[in-house]
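Late entry, evening session. Most of the bench is empty. Finally got around to the prediction I had been postponing all week. Sequence below, unchanged from the version circulated by S.P.
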Amino acid sequence: MSGRTDSVAGPAEAEEAERAEPVIRHEEDAADGEFHDEARRARWLATGTGALLTLAGVAAALLRLTGPAPALVPAAYATGAAVCAAAALLGARGRTRRALWLLIAGTMVMALGDQFD
């Protein structure tokens, strides 16, 4: 008896073995597609959050500019809004990690401006 354990016994099993290989490739493609979906969601999230914080910062700067607040307060809100706008642009280009840090920095600048009030 000189049968090998890794050999295919018949034509039906050979067809089944050939069909098994594309399934593995399909699973790899599915995992790759999931990665692209996750990256797309991260870009949209960074862009949307940056745009929202930019609009909030501009609105707060305009409201504080018309009130009796010191000039440093609307300047801080406007600077924070500009940083958040840069984060939105970076997020749209796929630089989501840098966009996250810029969003944090822009929000901190706006919070600092609120402390001067």
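Two things to note before I forget:
Residues 80 and 89 are 14 Å apart (CA to CA).
The chain has three helices and no strands.
Will write this up properly tomorrow.
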